């Protein structure tokens, strides 16, 4: 599939395609913040939450995790990297782990999730509820969690999410006035992300500056 780009607003662009094909086209970014498939679909076979229709496709979807080489390549194009599920990948040693403590987790769910980072800082914990996955993606992260993650990336640079899913990282960026580039391989999730980010752009807080134009910086 040839990647296809849409510019939703100044400083906000999304791509339909494989992030490996998009990487050479976008140059450097300031941070990669993402929640890729973990490759744990076969283990998500029961429990109270799995019975909900919205999670029906989760076991099949979570069969295609990126390789550690892809994640390391993403680190090469950015100053900062935050990868949810980083504990299941072969990544370098880190002291800057982020932990989401799920305050309302039921007994059949994990009590927490981990994000690997390349940040040279103490580990930090976020206490927050599991979301309701109302957007149609089975592993949607809560919006407030992704806003919290962005707080560890100072400045107003470009945030890149190569596994955009339903677009939560993009919505968080728009809400905070951050520039955003997102990539999604599955058309149905791409459409959801486009709708959510477009709606967020219409509802931007008047006290938050809109994202500035994205300036492409070559990797050469």
Report strand order across the widest sheet.
1-2-9-8-3-4-6-5-7
**Average of the residue pLDDT scores:** 85
Return the domain count.
Answer: 1
The CATH superfamily turns out to be Vaccinia Virus protein VP39
How much of the sequence lies in strands comes to: 15-25%
Question: Oligomerization state of this entry?
Answer: single chain
**What fraction, in percent, of the residue positions are helical?**
10-25%
- Rounded to the nearest angstrom, the radius of gyration is 16 Å
**The CATH C-level class name:** Alpha Beta
- Say how many strands there are: 9
Shape: globular
Order of helices and strands: EEHEHHEEEEHEHEH
Structural category? alpha/beta
Under the CATH scheme, the architecture is: 3-Layer(aba) Sandwich
The biggest beta sheet is recorded as:
9 strands, mixed
The CATH topology turns out to be Rossmann fold
- The low-pLDDT segments are none
């Amino acid at each position: 599939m040839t990647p296809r780009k849409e510019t939703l607003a100044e400083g906000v662009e999304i791509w339909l395609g494989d992030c490996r094909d998009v990487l050479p086209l976008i140059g450097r970014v300031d941070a990669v913040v993402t929640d890729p498939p973990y490759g744990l679909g076969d283990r998500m076979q029961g429990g109270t939450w799995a019975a909900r229709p919205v999670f029906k496709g989760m076991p099949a979807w979570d069969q295609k995790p990126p390789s550690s080489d892809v994640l390391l390549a993403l680190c090469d194009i950015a100053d900062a990297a935050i990868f949810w599920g980083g504990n299941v990948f072969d990544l370098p040693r880190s002291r800057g782990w982020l932990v989401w403590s799920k305050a309302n987790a039921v007994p059949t769910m994990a009590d927490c999730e981990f994000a690997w980072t390349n940040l040279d800082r103490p580990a930090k914990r976020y206490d927050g509820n599991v979301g309701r996955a109302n957007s149609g993606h089975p592993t949607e992260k809560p919006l407030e969690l992704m806003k919290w993650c962005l707080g560890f990336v100072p400045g107003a640079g470009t945030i890149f999410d190569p596994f955009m899913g339903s677009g939560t990282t993009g919505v968080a960026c728009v809400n905070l006035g951050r520039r955003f580039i997102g990539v999604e391989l599955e058309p149905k999730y791409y459409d959801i992300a486009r709708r959510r980010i477009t709606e967020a752009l219409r509802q931007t807080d008047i006290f938050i500056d809109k994202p500035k134009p994205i300036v492409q910086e070559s990797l050469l």
